[in-house]
Amino acid sequence: MTTTKWELLDQAYATLREAVAGVPVDGWGRATPCARWNVTQLLQHAAGDQLAYAARLTGGPGPTEDPFVPSGTLAGPPVDLLEPALAAAAEAFAGVAPGDPEVAVPLPPFSVPAETAVGAAALDAAVHAWDIAVATGRPPGLTDALAAALRPAADALVEPLRGFAYGPALPLAPGADHGAAARLLAFLGRDPGWAAPAV
């Protein structure tokens, strides 16, 4: 398994791998917190996003379909889609130097400091891992520690992408003790208490 040499991104990729590995055989058509997509489509989107990061960094091939219009049909086992995407992104990010002020990313503003680029790719992977985990009734892998580490990238990048990549921020119930994961999810437009419909 290729590592990125960036601990945050490696952790996010491990979280996504775990979520995908935990999907039951009958889970791929289940609803997700991304209302337009089922679990299969969400996997296609998450894998496509990571390929898009790799392509921007290396000039290599990007996703074969639009990550924002996933077909819902896999050509083979889910791992055969996910692993090449994560390997390509990991190899690409392994070449990103800490402190580089201009690193290419696939969404506006298209060039950001290295730590923000890494955080953006990690945010994408970790939050979609949460989506897949909760859609299939599994424990979410998005810990408060991971969420806190991802928050700077979210603060830097999310607002210009509202209505496209992210929904409106959601309010949290007043008076409750909300952890970093819940605060991050709500900021991204996700309900931290979302639960899969009964099957």
TrEMBL record:
| Gene3D superfamilies found in the cross-reference section | dinb family like domain
Q: Where is the Mycothiol-dependent maleylpyruvate isomerase metal-binding domain?
A: 10-133
* SUPFAM superfamilies given in the database record: DinB/YfiT-like putative metalloenzymes
InterPro entries xref list: CHP03086, DinB/YfiT-like, Maleyloyr_isom, MDMPI_metal-binding
Provide an example Pfam family for this protein.
MDMPI_N
Q: What is this protein called?
A: TIGR03086 family metal-binding protein
